Amino acid sequence: MLSTKRAVIFAAIFAGLVFAQAPATTPATIVVKGDVTTPLTLKAEDLAAMPREKVTIPDQDGTKVEYEGVALREILKKAGAPLGSQLRGSALTTYVLASAHDGYQVVFTLGEIDAAFGNAKIVVADKRDGKPLFEYQGPYRLVCPDDKAGARSVRMLETLEIVRLKK
After folding, report:
1. Per DSSP, which regions of the chain are E strands?
2. pLDDT digits (tens, 9 = 90+) for 107-148
3. Cα separation of 63 and 143, whole Å?
4. Percent helix, percent strand, percent coil in the chain, to nearest 5
5. Distance CA 38, CA 45 (A)
6. Furthest-apart CA pair in the chain: how many Å?
7. Contact in structure between 80 and 36 (CB atoms under 8 Å)
8. 3-state DSSP call for residue 15?
9. Taking the model in full, what pTM does it have?
10. What phi and psi values does residue 112 have, to the nearest 5 degrees?
């Protein structure tokens, strides 16, 4: 009788293990939406296929940290944001609202990003010192090496929304 109970318990545990499902995980993405001709949902492999850049910034302790990723302007170009010769007139009222997983948001104007205007170097990084970003930073992070403060270096970046002000 005792062995029958053990067999039933073992069968129940085994069935639970066999039929238990791991939670579904979605690949990390960056959504580019808003006033663009081609809204995007970029995965790691999409970013890996785009032109890559490296930038170096000081860490909190003063050591140099190298981030690698894709220039924000390249992602915006791919989405069809008005850049280059299209960045004239009312298009100059367009901004990028960058949003993080935790709700943190910052703004960049297209004028400061465009190579012919501000030419700000802003990178959507997926690597730090050649390795994937730490969990609390990534999987994607905006890095702004020319900013004097790090407040616009958005950790856990999820969304880039392009907004044109209407008057």
Report:
1. 29-34, 40-43, 53-58, 64-71, 94-100, 105-109, 123-128, 131-132, 141-143, 157-164
2. 999 999 999 999 989 999 999 999 999 888 889 999 999 888
3. 16
4. 25, 35, 40
5. 18
6. 86
7. yes
8. helix
9. 0.81
10. -75, -25
